[in-house]
Every structure is written in structure tokens, then in C-alpha cells.
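Hey, can you fold this?
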Amino acid sequence: MNGRTNKRKQLFVAITMLGLLLCSAEAFSAINNAGIMDTVLNRFKTNASLWASIIESVATRLFWTLALISMVWTFGMMALRKADIGEFFAKLIRFTVLEFRV
């Protein structure tokens, strides 16, 4: 009798689920998605223009810091091997002309 009761419960659940599926109304979303990509793009553009100046100043500072480190290292190595003044000027010109091209 216990197996019969389980089958009835399963049949009742299946019929109830099928009835709910057939009777469910179509759901409509209240979101108007016309032009949503344009809105997102405009918001990103507005916010990105605020970041641009900050990122540019940090990148410029980083560039010059790394350039200074590179020059100090290069000239330090040249001083340790006792290079003459002509090599220092040649390296300085090479740094300014070749390395810092804009």
C-alpha cells in the first residue's frame, strides 16, 4: 500500500506541475531596451574622459622615473669601468635622440 501512495503522490505532483505550466501567463519585462547600448557607451565615455588625465599624468611620471633609473644605471656602469668623457657624451646623445623619441 505504501508503494501505491507514493505513485499517487508522484502523479499528483506531475499533474499539478503540468497544470501550472499550461496555465502560466506570459511574463513581460518592464525594461525598455531601446537604445540601451548607446546609454552604456555614453556613460563609459563620460567616465573614461575623467580617468584619462589621471592615467596620463601617472604614466608620464612613470616614464620619466624609469628613464632616470635607466640613465643612472648606464652612467654608473660607465663610471665603474672608467669610461672617458667622450663616451659619456655619446651615450647621453644616444639616450636623448634614440630612447626618448616621441
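Oh, and this one too while you're at it.
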Amino acid sequence: MKNVLIFTIIGLLFLGCKTEEKRTDYIINGNAPGIYNGVRSYLKMVEKNGRERVIDTAIVIDEKFSFTGKVLYPTLSSISVNSVNGKLNFMLENSVIDIAIDKSNIAQSKISGSSSQNDFERYQNEFTTIRKEAMDLKSQLRNIRANQTATKRDSLTKLSTAAEKKLQELPISFIENNTNSYYSLALIDIEASKNNANIDKLLAAYNTLDSELKSSPKGVSLKINLDNLLIAYQKKARVDIGKIAPDFTAPTPEGNTVSLNDIKGKVTIIDFWAAWCGPCRRENPNVVRIYDKYHDQGLEIIGVSLDGNRTQKDPKQTWLDAIEKDKLTWTHVSNLQYFQDPVAQLYNINAIPAVFILDAEGKIVAKNLRGNALEAKVKELLQQ
């Protein structure tokens, strides 16, 4: 009898400690008080470019609606309801999720049942708090009275700057402090899609994540995207203003080769153009005028032609004819490979005309100036 009791207790303990199996699907139960029968609701997936894609729809019946389905991993999503302004962002995962729709402000709707939603809400609350602080401080600075002391103004300025910095650093800070959260993956995706994204910092933050997150389908695809963005960023960064212009060697019309370093002057213009480029040809008379005026003072130009597209029967002859017709008497080079030209690739050229102005040290000091602005910059540099 004693042995039976012991085995019974052990069995109960085993059952009590048994891990509950993870769900492989989701059920969203929407409670929508005040919303009429027949109104349609939409479940949308938020994609990496910030756009939303509808993945399901449901009809409100007796102030309720529901969605069912599966996701590979917790994913930033949204719900919108016809006749209700705005949308509700939330983290969708394979679980039973209950949503109480607030008809007056759908963004304030209550969500339960999604563990990654808790991380999402923590981030949003912290972001809102810091942003309000930053906005309040800016407002105080705008409304500061003339008779208030400089000390007070300086104090507010420092506080405002600190709040703005904290707001900018919040995404990375959150990711580094929540290395096992799927919302951290979503946050990296959001930040990476911004024009001013710091890809180096995002990659560093990604590398702090738990291995389970990084090996997930979302983690793997995100890493590929970050690597591609880093390559694009590096291409752009190497020809940013302030950088030394990368040297290159390319063939001249006569079949010789010349490098940028061979022809650099006190001021150097690298002019990416083509015979087929209308804006380039219309700007050429201005460039000729500037070259004739300042060449004796140290101005050099190297024209890099992007001729060689498939519509040109004889790209080289077309290039040579344009040089002669437009009276372009400076150095010219081209691989006649259109935008696949190695020099164009080196300088991350996606459209022409494109112009780089270099100082005597070969540093890029300006880009894409035309007309009087181009002449003014050349004159300024020659006088230094």
C-alpha cells in the first residue's frame, strides 16, 4: 500500500511538471461592443518596408469576430475595422489571443494571450513617455521668456538634447536588453527600413540576440537583409562628402588607360554622363564654360561615360561624336558598359548626370552641383 501511494505521488508530480505543448496555430477572439453586424474587420501583416498586407478578413456578428490561422513566428501585425478610425498594432503569435476593441480609440484596445505583445507594449509605453518628455522640453524652450536667465535656457537645452538622444537610442537599448524577444527582431526590421538606419549598430544588436531567435526563419531572413543593407551602405559611404575619392583606371577613346590620380589638379571634377543622357548634354555647355575659365588655374575634369546600353548600335562612336559635338576637351574614359561600368559601380552611380568635386587632396567636397553653384564651388576651392 505504501509503495502504491509513493508511485501515485510521483505520477502526479510528473504530470504536474509536464511542459505544455506549444500551440501551432492562433485563434483571435475579437470583442467589439457597439459595432454593428456585418461590418468587416481585417487582419494584416506588417512587412519590412512598413506596408501592410491583408491576410484575413472577418465579419462582426453579435459584436464579435474571430480569426484563425498559423504563423511561423511571432509577427508584427494589425487589425482594422470598417467604421472605426485607425488601426490596432499588435504581435501575432500561435496562441489564443483575446482583443477587446475600443471603438472610440482602437489603438487603446486591450490585448491578452500573446506573450510577445507584452514586450511590444513595454516598448511602446517607454517610447511614448520619452517622446512626451522631449516634446515638453522643446515646448518650454520655444516659450522661454526673454527675461529668463541664460542658465535656465542652457539647462533646458541640455535636458532636451538628452531626451532626444535617449529617444534615438531606445530601439538599440531595448534590443540589447531583450535578447530573447521576437519583438526585438521586429524592431530591428523596422529600424533597418528607415533612410537614416545605422546598419552597423543594428547588426551589432542582432548579434546579441539569443541563438534561437537568430536561427528562426525570421532571424535568418533578417540577417540576409541586414548584410545586403550593409553592402549598400558601404558602397554609398565610401563616396560620401569628406572621403578621399577612390582611385580608378579606365580606357580613353584612344585605347590607352588613365587613372584618376594621373589627372588630379588643384580642383578636380569627376563627371558621370553619357551621349544618350539629355540632362547631361544640356549641362555640358556650362561645364565647358567653367573648364575654359578655370583650367589654367588648376581645374581638371575627367568625364566617365556610361554609354553602352543595348539601344546603341555603335556605343563608342556615339560617345566620340558627343565629345566632339559638345566640345568637351578634357580627359575622357569609359568601359562602355552602361551602369555596369566598374567606375560607376565604384562610385555607386544609379542615375546621371552625377558630379563629384574634389579638392587638392582628392577629398570629395561636394556632389551633384550644376550651373552657377558648380562654378561658385570651383572658384572657392581654387582661391584656397
